[in-house]
Every structure is written in structure tokens, then in C-alpha cells.
Write a structure and sequence with these properties.
Layout lengths: L1 H14 L18 E4 L4 E4 L6 E2 L1 H6 L5 E5 L4 E9 L7 H13 L3 E13 L2 E12 L2 E12 L2 E10 L3 H13 L1 E3 L4
Antiparallel strand pairs: 1-2, 2-10, 3-4, 4-5, 5-9, 6-7, 7-8, 8-9
Length: 183
């Protein structure tokens, strides 16, 4: 019995009594979830917890890699990719594929090419678009990156009324996408 009591006493004398943080103190830092795909040669760092996986939208926009949504304000993004066996397609082919994917989801789609942007710190084609989903006008962008024989379509959109509020968030979301050194 004396040994059982003496062991903790000796421990606290040597190491000190642990200080407990008061209620409402800091939470321990959490690791940001990351997804890697060797097949598609990319890594994506997921955004904050306001964003949730959205498989129905993923199917609707034909995004084979990822789709997520948030609320207040509502916003969505989707990532699609295709590995071409022989060589990368031409510019007009990847734009036509982007428009085809958008037309499959957005009614009354209107789109225009925008000045090139960046995705994964590489030059990317950009399309700006608007269209309706459930009678709500949406606005968005599709960044198209061709890297070696892989094409990535990274699409972001929200209600037109929320476009200004979401503008800064879209770049942060796209910044979470990077390429691996696998190819």
C-alpha cells in the first residue's frame, strides 16, 4: 500500500504537478485533412470545417475526384480530372469538355474565356460562367490545368448574390490544390 501511494508522490516531486487549462481555454491544434491521388498526381488540402463533401453535386457535375459545399453563404466547388493515354489534348478540346460538364448541370449557361490564371502554381485556362440551378442564378469560374497528360477542371460557384462575399474564399480553396512529383 505504501508503494502505491509513494510512486505518485515521487512522480509529482520529480516532474511537478501538471497544470490544467481552465475551461474554455485553447483547443489543441488539429491537423488539416489532406487527400492525395497517385493516379491523378495531385494533393488537396481540405478547407475549413464549413465545407462538407457533396456527393450528389459531384455526380451532377461529373466531378470524378471531389465536390464540396458550404452554407451561409452557399458555395460549391468540384474537381474533375482525366488521364489521357497518349498525349494531352488541345486547348479547344479541354475548353469544350469544361463547357459540356457545365451544361450538364447549369441551365441557361453563359460562359466566356477569362484571362489565364493559376492552379497548382501553374498557368491555367479560366472560364467564367453563369447559369441557373433550381431557378437560382449562379456565377462561377472553371480553372483548367493541363499537366503532362492529365487535365484538371477545378470549378467554383455560388449564387450570383453571394459572388462578392465568396470571391476571396475561392482563391484559398484553389490554393489547396497542388501537384505531386510522381510524374
Amino acid at each position: 500500500m505504501i508503494t502505491v501511494v509513494a510512486a505518485p508522490v515521487v512522480y509529482f516531486i520529480v516532474y511537478g504537478f501538471p497544470s490544467l487549462e481552465k475551461p474554455g481555454g485553447k483547443e489543441p491544434p488539429r491537423a488539416t485533412p489532406v487527400h492525395e491521388s497517385k493516379e491523378f498526381n495531385y494533393r488537396f488540402t481540405f478547407p475549413d470545417s464549413a465545407w462538407k463533401q457533396d456527393n450528389p453535386t459531384r455526380m451532377n457535375v461529373k466531378a470524378n475526384l471531389l465536390a464540396m459545399k458550404r452554407s451561409n453563404p452557399n458555395g460549391w466547388f468540384a474537381l474533375a480530372g482525366h488521364v489521357y493515354k497518349n498525349s494531352a489534348p488541345q486547348k479547344n478540346e479541354v475548353i469544350a469538355e469544361a463547357v459540356k460538364r457545365l451544361e450538364g448541370y447549369f441551365q441557361e449557361l453563359e460562359w466566356d474565356p477569362a484571362p489565364d490564371g493559376f492552379l497548382a502554381q501553374r498557368a491555367a485556362r479560366v472560364l467564367v460562367f453563369q447559369g441557373k440551378v433550381d431557378h437560382i442564378l449562379m456565377r462561377g469560374e472553371c480553372h483548367i490545368l493541363v499537366h503532362q497528360n492529365i487535365v484538371y477542371w477545378f470549378t467554383t460557384w455560388c449564387a450570383a448574390s453571394d459572388a462578392a462575399a465568396m470571391a476571396s474564399e475561392w482563391q484559398r480553396i484553389r490554393d489547396g490544390f497542388s501537384l505531386l512529383d510522381a510524374r
